[in-house]
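Before we proceed, please read the two lines closing this message. Report back on whether the structure tokens fit the sequence:
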Amino acid sequence: MIRVLIERHIAESLESAYEERSRKVLQQAVSAPGFISGETLVDRHDPNHRITLANWRSEADWDRWFHSEERRGLMSELVPMMDQEEAITVLEQSAI
């Protein structure tokens, strides 16, 4: 299993529109092969900073979703609402 950390920063005053559309992205990811679970968090000190932590069966499953036409289409609605590019980090459990 891998975890994918996705960080996004929303432009001022677009929070509610972003929430609505980002929910669609997560709903579609849930049905993607290899998706296990996910949650979205809000930075307590910066309400426009959002972090999604998603668990995927494998990096291949994540890559398939990441490069899918479906995700690209959904992201085309989100990207204009962000004032920074999304940052994605793929994580795996430490051997320690």
Summary: The chain has a mean pLDDT of 95. The chain has one domain: 2-92. The longest strand covers residues 46-56. The two ends are 16 Å apart (CA to CA).
